[in-house]
Design a protein that fits this description.
Cytochrome Bc1 Complex, Chain D, domain 2; 2 domains; 4 strands; about 45% helix; elongated; binds heme C
Length: about 375
């Protein structure tokens, strides 16, 4: 008996009325650390024991405020500073749009936090032993008796006095409850070899299983995650597109690749003027082609004869005449340059015309110029 640590003293009562009056007397005698155990809830008990409000509400408050603040702060930081996006022209920190998420996170943290606080702080999990477990007392009060237990932790506690006191207020079966020595002396030893082996084995099993699932099982037939695809490699012979046996496609007829026309004289009209030579000669075919392209692409602004008489009715600034001294004295390369790069308000025609088409237009522009400024010898 000597080396046992006392938990408290219990007493049994027969009726709800008795236990209520007992609780009142224990409380008014100045005991603070006592508890009442009954088979079912008894009305008026909290009042008789003069219990205060549960602290759980404060946990809910603290967790709820934490959730609200955390959600709001995170969204404000992300949307306002870290990664601001314009969404339907709204401000970067649209407070009304934050409300639903803030509300949800508030409720989530308040509820989960309250339950966890109840389990771990108030119920003291994972400790699941209690000195009252397995006593006659708890067996009685969980079937048809009503019991009261005054704990040794109470400041006023004195074993003999409490026993006398309980008997005086009418308790039967007054019993002294001790802590279970086995429970008290139990030490968790995490370095015990069995436990360590268990940890190592479970780590190996889990990582092995994860490895097999993620690297083998997931890729067993029929799952190939689109890694095997019927594809045609560039430069390799293939009949897929037809009889030409090419796996790569050539640009459709009449289209102009934006990337294949790298212009060497970009930004250097004088150099283009000096260096570029028209590779086409003025044959009828070339001139007809130039006329066709000129009529399509140039005539809307420059007019059919290059006089600057646009058909656009002032929707675009009228260009100067192509028969000016200036343009007539330009080299072919300079006209080619203007078609390729544009000039001031005139846009580039590089994405509409191939180099060959541009040169044919240059031929045609030259022909127009010559027609407008014919010399004596041209008439011969
Ligand atoms: C959208 C109207 C428009 C079209 C289409 C157009 N141009 Fe022009 N072009 C202009 C304007 C405007 C100017 C004057 C730009 C400037 O202010 O320097 C100009 C200038 C020129 C010049 C230089 C004239 C000079 O005196 O500086 C040449 C050459 C020229 N264009 C040739 C062409 C050719 C060839 C085509 C057809 C491929 C063509 N343009 C299509 C509007 C157009």
């Amino acid at each position: 008996m000597e080396n046992k640590i006392i938990y408290g003293v219990t007493g049994i009562f027969d009726t709800p009325d008795e236990i209520i009056s007992a609780a009142k007397q224990v409380k008014s005698s100045g005991f603070e650390r006592f508890d009442v155990h009954t088979p079912y809830p008894i009305h008026g008990m909290p009042k008789a024991m003069r219990l205060g409000a549960s602290p759980l509400g404060y946990f809910a408050l603290v967790f709820g405020l934490t959730g609200a603040f955390a959600a709001f702060a995170l969204m404000t930081y992300l949307m306002g500073y870290n990664y601001p996006l314009i969404i339907s022209g709204k401000p970067f920190i649209p407070i009304p749009a934050f409300i639903p998420v803030t509300f949800e996170v508030t409720v989530l943290l308040a509820s989960v936090g309250t339950v966890l606080a109840m389990l771990f702080l108030l119920f003291k999990l994972p400790n699941n032993s209690h000195p009252l477990h397995d006593t006659d007392y708890i067996k009685k009060v969980s079937s048809d008796k009503f019991g009261i237990c005054i704990e040794a932790k109470d400041d006023k506690f004195n074993e003999n006095e409490v026993i006398e006191f309980l008997k005086k207020i009418g308790a039967k079966d007054v019993e002294v409850i001790y802590y279970d020595n086995e429970t008290l002396n139990f030490k968790v030893n995490i370095f015990e070899w069995k436990f360590v082996t268990f940890l190592v084995v479970s780590a190996l099993v889990v990582s092995g299983a994860t490895y097999i699932v993620l690297n083998k099982l997931m890729f067993a037939r029929p799952f190939n995650w689109m890694m095997e695809q019927h594809r045609i490699d560039a430069q390799v012979e293939s009949k897929f597109f037809g009889k030409d046996n090419f796996s790569m496609r050539v640009a459709p007829v009449g289209t102009v690749s934006r990337h294949s026309n790298q212009f060497k004289f970009s930004g250097q009209p004088e150099l283009a003027d000096a260096k570029l030579v028209n590779p086409l000669i003025p044959t009828e075919v070339n001139l007809r082609k130039g006329m066709k392209k000129y009529d399509i692409y140039c005539s809307p602004c420059h007019g059919y004869h290059g006089l600057g008489d646009a058909r656009l009715n002032g929707q675009f600034p009228n260009p100067p005449s192509l028969h000016s001294e200036k343009v007539r004295n330009w080299g072919d390369g300079h006209i080619f340059y203007v078609i390729t790069e544009g000039q001031n308000s005139m846009p580039s025609y590089s994405s509409q015309l191939t180099n060959e088409e541009k040169w044919s237009i240059v031929l045609y522009v030259r022909a127009l110029q010559r027609a407008m400024n014919a010399k004596e010898e041209d008439l011969k």
